[in-house]
């Protein structure tokens, strides 16, 4: 084997041994000779890496076997995927920035409010939420005669609240789709 002019460089955290010396390939066209030469170069590189690991890394013996502690890696590796592109600003985000509207604090986002009538905390929305209006619990509901006359057959007063909630959800979804279309158009 010819003498090495440059020493190996190591990154033991990645189990990497880098040989900066060029590989001297024999001029023969015989593939067996070429394979034997490349195998010898790979074997020498692996042996140098193992020797470096055994001499510089801490070794500990456990009931499961012998453990070799690796140092932290030194070579920065590139990302597997490109850095994600920032999402386009929605119409609401642009409006909020212009008006100086900030996101709610943790306390403002809490789903509890104090009910003075019962003296307990209750949910603002969701299951048994205060925004349901307690229509399920009220035995008697006042009926607006004008609205009742306009009402179609088969609807109920209790169903109106649910219908309003469904309409709000649909309206919000339409606005969301419109925002996405506007954001795509601004690219």
Topology:
Elements: E1 9-11, E2 16-18, H1 31-56, E3 59-62, E4 65-68, H2 91-99, H3 106-109, E5 112-115, E6 120-123, H4 145-150, H5 157-185
Antiparallel strand pairs: 1-2, 3-4, 5-6
- The percent of residues in helical segments reads 25-40%
Helical region count?
5
C-alpha termini separation: 60 Å
The value of Rg in angstroms is 36 Å
Q: Which sheet architecture does the biggest sheet show?
A: 2 strands, antiparallel
Spatial strand order of the main sheet: 1-2
Number of strand elements: 6
Oligomer: single chain
Q: What is the strand content?
A: 5-15%
What is the H/E order? Answer: EEHEEHHEEHH
Mean pLDDT: 85
Structural class: alpha+beta
Q: Identify the overall geometry.
A: elongated
- Poorly predicted residue ranges: none
Question: What does this entry look like structurally?
Answer:
It is found in: Nucleus. Involved in ribosomal large subunit assembly. Residues 69-89, 146-187 are annotated as: Disordered. By secondary structure, the protein is α+β, with helices and mostly antiparallel strands. The chain has five helices and six strands, in the order E-E-H-E-E-H-H-E-E-H-H. It has helices spanning 31-56, 91-99, 106-109, 145-150, 157-185; strands at 9-11, 16-18, 59-62, 65-68, 112-115, 120-123. 1% of the residues are buried.
């Amino acid at each position: 084997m010819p003498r090495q002019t440059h020493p190996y460089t190591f990154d033991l955290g990645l189990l990497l041994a880098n040989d900066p010396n060029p590989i001297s390939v024999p001029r023969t066209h015989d593939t067996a000779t070429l394979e034997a030469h490349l195998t010898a170069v790979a074997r020498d590189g692996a042996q140098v890496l193992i020797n470096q690991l055994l001499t510089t890394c801490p070794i500990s013996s456990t009931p499961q076997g012998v453990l070799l502690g690796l140092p932290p890696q030194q070579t920065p590796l590139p990302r597997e995927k490109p850095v994600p592109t920032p999402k386009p600003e929605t119409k609401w985000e642009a409006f909020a920035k212009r008006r100086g509207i900030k996101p709610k604090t943790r306390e403002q986002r809490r789903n509890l409010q104090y009910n003075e009538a019962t003296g307990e905390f209750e949910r603002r929305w969701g299951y048994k939420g205060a925004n349901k209006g307690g229509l399920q619990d009220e035995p008697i509901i006042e009926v607006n005669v004008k609205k009742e006359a306009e009402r179609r057959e088969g609807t109920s007063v209790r169903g109106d609240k649910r219908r309003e909630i469904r309409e709000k959800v649909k309206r919000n979804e339409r606005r969301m789709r419109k925002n996405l279309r506007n954001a795509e158009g601004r690219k």
